[in-house]
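Hi,

Apologies if this is the wrong queue. I'm a grad student, and the batch job for Bax inhibitor 1 from Nannospalax galili produced an output file that my downstream script rejects. I'm not sure whether the problem is my script or the file. Here is the sequence I used:
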Amino acid sequence: ILWNHEHIDQKINFDALLRFSHITPLTQQYLEKIYASFALYVFVAAAGAYVHATGLLSALGSLGLMIWLMAIPHKEKRLGLLTGFAFLTGVGLGPALELCIAVSPSVLPTAFMSTAMIFTCFSLSTLYPRCQSHIFLGGILISVMSLMFLSSLGNLFFGSIWLFQANLYMGLVVMCGFVLFDTHLIDEKDYIWHCADLFLDFVTLFRKLRMILALDEKDKKKEKK
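Support response: The file is valid. Your script probably expects a header line. Output copied below for reference.
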């Protein structure tokens, strides 16, 4: 009891919490470049969602831009392609966001803030030296995603809502793992590709949370009726 009391009385040292002295100045500059670009692409995606059009065309366009991005080494062109990819990704999100607003206007801001909080926490946790052992996650995450894909295909025939929800929540956990994994690889890729990885992680995490919150709101409305 005495230990618990002393533990509660301890003040949180936010300076120590946010201190990254183990990261070299060069890596800090690299991080700043990545997350500044990442924030820009999230904003561009939001703009795309605001002026959304046909979801299929945007999906094909974003896929084409990603393939093009993989095929060329020129840095300036790749930045432009990644910007276009982020915009079309936002365009593709538009129709689904409208459906969420129809269910409840609170779903989108809650999903976005929750995504930002989860993404930030998992990203920061990877930057500490004691947490630099996430490289093994890659094989596990890909294996779990393969199993989820197979179960989703099987669920096309079974139509189980329980399996659908299990895949949804498992997908949320997997995406948190990918945030850890992709942040861990920060020194092994150029910043454009790393920014693309983080952007895709953020968007997928947002999609999962948006769907979970929307389904929860629909269930609440059914219970009230």
